[in-house]
Structure formats: structure tokens, C-alpha cells
């Protein structure tokens, strides 16, 4: 038994009070302090107690979750600064972010996430001298998303061990991670929607007491709808279900306070609907017709194909040489999830059958997340299979992956809790779930340097930024001529043009008169000279040095090769 849980020497041992807090004056200055002398053995005891107290914080799951949260935000800041700007980001900046009028009236492609473009225009006025300023809004909302996910995981999962696994599984998944710092609308929508879910969970705990929803919540909900749908319309399924949950919360809380309060709640729901519709109309009024005309860009595909692209590839599509092991881990996690789901359904049915009742839906955050996930899946199924609307690209479903991963942790946690009376079984189940999820987490970590959306060539595109900065550091006055391997790296041309606009002496050339050649894979000729081969391995490309171009610049070639080995 740990004595520090029951005995506090500073409070219950007056004889050592002077030693414990030497900076405080004695409470009885006129009294003889001969009894306050501390023996050597008591000093050893106090030092050991103080040493243990310093490490008790490390055992607290909140402290570990905070460390994971800070690491996730810090790594996003690092990659947002280091990783090069990719084609889609440059496309957004060059075509839609020159001024506010263009941002809200131009819509030649779906690449214009309107609210994100507006934030980029405003950020340029403050941080326009920083070459990666276009990512600042996404990074801020990405940090907000991380905080919301941490709160949701802490409130919905009871097991400290599963909390520590589920949080990095969501925050450090390569698919979710990269989309929460790139200069697109995904981070804005994720930050807004999951903050709305976190606030909903906080308010749901007060539903039983009938506490009315304040006007601050009304304005927050309007702002959430405007931010999420203004930056990514494909988040409609999640936003709509969040609003339905808020509406049920208002009605549930107001029905216990009388008919007049219920009428007020219905009026506030109308304010939310009208306010959100008015704000979105003002944002999209100039581009709505163009958006309708571009709906043919996305093909309508079967719902299960879309789920495979959203829920299968981000958790499995890694190194093809290890695909069998990844597939085994994925199948093991599906088996455990199915088993835990059956256990949870059995426990719920048994509780209802025994007439013990169950907790109201809104007083249980875990059940709220599960029902929200099911509602989003049902809405997307109806949208795709019944009405025939396209769900868009796979990356548009990034919010669904976050919900499913959290729901997986909830089901595994509650299954172990439901079997708590069975000896050793909950511990074994938690260990099995933790082991599988830990392996899945480490198999799907983001790349250290590159944008790691593996279904595109974004990794190669993100190499232009680090390459440009390194060459500028070697010789800022030299004009570096870069050749691209076409057609594999043709999308890097916009990145080169982007960095040349910030004072970097770099340009794209064709033919044999080049300094460096961006190659998507290792060239067949083994006699070529590589530049910083290890550094650019994460980008799935290599940089080939044209030694013949440096015949009259031997010192520059020497600096180039030496710097590349660092």
C-alpha cells in the first residue's frame, strides 16, 4: 500500500513542517522551536516522499495525453515549416488568393475552398514575407482539432491504457495528419466540427438538469456551421448530424422546464437554421452556379468502394513489401472490433431485459459518439446509394476516419468493462486490443519530412521546398536550374514557380543544361551522383547532380556534395 496516498507529512507531521516548507515563517513565532528539529531519518523519509511525488504525475493519464497532444501539435508545426508547398496549395494561392474579391467570386475548379482562401488573403497581409504563410490558418485549426480530439478521447474512454493508444492513433495517422496542416480547407472543417462535438459533449452532461442552452452556444453553432461548410462542403453529413444532436439537446433540456421554455428552444433552433443559411448564402452567392456546373468532376461510385478508400487505405496502404503483415493486423483489429461490438450489444440487451434501465443518451458521451458515427454513415449511404450524389474524393472523408477510430476505441473499452466480472478476461481483452492498435498506430505514422498522401505524387512535390532552401543556403546568389522527370514530376513546376516568387534563385529547365534533376525513383544508371540521398528518401524521389554543369564551378560542386552528406 502506498503511504503517500494516505499520509501527507506537510499536513499531519508538525514536527517536520519547518523542513517541508522552509520558505514559510513559523505559525507560532513566539513559541520555542526546539520541537521542530528534524532527525536525519525523517529527512531521508521526506526526500523519498518528495521524489515519489515528482513521478506520480507521470502515472497520470492526463499528463500523458497532454504530452501526446503537444507532440502532435509540435510535429505539425515542424512539417508545416519544413515540408515543401505542393501543387494544390500553389494552385489555390495563385488562382484564388490574390484578393478577397477573387476568393469569393472565382470558382473554376473545386480546388477553391472559399473560407480557406479568405483566411490566406488575410494572413498574407500580416505574414506575407514568410514563404509558408499560406499554411498558417490550417495549422491553427489543426491545433484546434488536436485539442478537441484529446478532450473527446478523454471523456469517452475509461481505460487509461486505451486512451494513450487511441489518441496517437487518431492524431498521428498519416492520412489525417497531413490534411491538418496543408493549406486546404480540410483542417478548418475538422477543427470546427470536432470542436462542436466537444462542446456538445460538455453540454450533454447538463441535459438531465434541464439547463437551457445559452445564446453563446447559438452563436457558436452558427460559426461552426459557417466555418465547416464554408471550407469543405463534403462535411455536410457530419455538420447536419451535429446540429440534430444540438436540437435534441435543446428540446430535451427545455421540456423539463415548461412549455414556454420549449417554445423558446424551438425559436432558437430557427435562429440557428436561418443564421447559418444566411451566412453561407453570403459566402457562396457568387459561385453557386459554377459549383453546380462542376458536379460532373466527381464520379458516383458504390458506397462500399468509397468506404474502402477512406477506411482501408489510410490504415493499410503502406509499404507494399509488408502488405501481408499490415493486412493481418487490419484483419485482427476488425475481428476484435466485431467481438467487442457483440459484447456491447449483449450487455446492453441484458441490462434492458433485467429492467435496470440505462443511462440517458446525452449523459453518456461514448454513446453519443457511437450514435453520431452511425448517423453519419447512414446519411452518406442515403446520399450515395439513394439520391446518387457523389461523396467526392477519399480525402473528403477524413472526418469519418477520425470518428470511426474513436468509436473503435470506445467499443473495445466498453466491452472490457462489460466483462469486468469475468476473472482476467477484461485484462486480456485490453491487452489484445492495445497490442493490435499499437501496431496499427506505428505502421501508419506520418513521414518525417514529406507529405505522405500515397495515392498522389505529393511526396515528390513536397521535396521542392527543402531542396530550394538548401540550395539557397549553399549559394544564395547562384541561379539553380532544376530539371523535372516528366510526366511523373510535372506537377512540381508550380512549386518551383511559387518559391521563385519569394526571392529564391531557382527555375525549371528542359534538356541537358541543368544543375539538378528531380527523379521520382532511382535512375537505371548507377554511375550518377546523388544529392542528399538520405534526406530526400522520404519524398520517394532522388536528386541527381549534373556534374558536367559544374566544370567551371568546382568549389560550388564541392560545397554541394559536402552539404548533401550532412
Notable traits:
566 residues, D-Maltodextrin-Binding Protein, domain 2, mainly alpha, single chain
What does this structure look like?
This protein has 566 residues and is mainly alpha-helical. A five-stranded mixed beta sheet has the order 2-1-3-5-4, covered by helices on one side. Helices cover 61% and strands 3% of the residues. Residues 1-37 and 359-363 have low confidence and may be disordered. It is built from 24 helices and five strands. The chain starts with 8 loop residues before the first helix and ends with a helix.
Number of strands: 5
Strands of the biggest beta sheet: in what spatial order?
A: 2-1-3-5-4
The tally of structural domains comes to 3
* Fraction in helix: 55-70%
Indicate the low-confidence ranges by residue numbers. 1-37, 359-363
Euclidean distance between termini CA atoms: 53 Å
Residue-averaged pLDDT: 81
The ordered string of helix (H) and strand (E) elements is HHHHHHHHHHHHHHHHHHHHHHEHEEEEH
Task: Estimate the strand proportion.
Answer: under 5%
In short:
The protein is mainly alpha-helical and 566 residues long. The chain has helices spanning 9-12, 17-20, 40-56, 61-82, 87-96, 100-105, 114-127, 136-156, 160-171, 174-178, 186-204, 215-231, 236-255, 259-284, 288-293, 303-316, 323-353, 365-386, 398-418, 425-443, 458-461, 464-474, 493-500, 554-564, and strands at 480-484, 506-509, 516-519, 529-530, 542-545.
